[in-house]
UniProtKB/TrEMBL annotation:
GO molecular function: magnesium ion binding
Highest taxon of source: Bacteria
Database matches in SMART domains: Transket_pyr
Pfam families, per database record: Transket_pyr (PF02779), Transketolase_C (PF02780)
Source organism per UniProt: Streptomyces pristinaespiralis (strain ATCC 25486 / DSM 40338 / CBS 914.69 / JCM 4507 / KCC S-0507 / NBRC 13074 / NRRL 2958 / 5647)
Descriptive protein name: Transketolase B subunit
Domain Transketolase-like pyrimidine-binding residues, every copy: 2-167
Amino acid sequence: MDTMRDRFIATTSRLLDEEPRTALVLAEISAAGFEQAQRRHPDRVINVGIREQLLIGAGGGIALSGMRPIMHTFASFLVERPFEQVKLDFGHQNTGGVLVSAGASYDWPAGGFTHMSPGDVALLDTLDGWTVHVPGHPDEAEALLRHAVAGDDRVYVRLSQQSNSEARPVTGDRFLTLREGRGPAVVAVGPMLDNVLAATEGLDVSVLYATTVRPFDREAVRAAAGGRGDVVIVEPYLEGTSTTAANDALSDVPHRVLGLGVARRELRRYGTIDEHLAAHGLDPVSLRARISAFAEQGARGAHRRS
């Protein structure tokens, strides 16, 4: 199976052929994959070199001309390094564009902390008007990228090496309900789904699948949480990133929210993706223990209140 990044290159190359208003801005990363597209569309495929602030600035200028720019590099260089440009050249100028990242939180551990970006979604949360897609499979990445390019708003598409075993029918807005139970509602974000499904096998919980996390699907969480109002959010980035959104969705009912994700502590050994997952407690065994403890605590509290 191809990776999300492979699918991004193939899909964007086709979009450049199909959509005359589409432009692509690169900062060396993935440039080799777009060599043919650049030959076909030299005026709409621009490689600015290792100049990430210019990457965003050029994209912002292209957006002001009425075109639809796609800007791409590693997440740490796309959101964190040029954050001022993201804030001003798109938010302040009220223009639209599509940021497409690679690298996720720790997809290339050998690259070290400079190439890791567990805080990217939390950082974008400080800005207004961004849609955030977190696909869990290459097919979903293609669908969400096409959805993003067809619009005029500000969109971040967060790609990862991690992938679920099968694609789900994503729409670019709502969470999908995959299991229904009487216990907590467990929201699995993007590539966390397979681990969450394995971790919750046999548990009396609901499982929601989220590939579009901003806007946050408040209605789906409210419906799944039910009367108990307990929610677990399993995210492939900084733990707690979406707990405020869940708390806001349930603000009028008693509730508890557990945010599971990448811890704030820096892991200073390279390791592998699977080793990073285990170290952050995001492997199936660790997730099952943490979700079960949360559910049991809630059940004991409900029993005491009755």
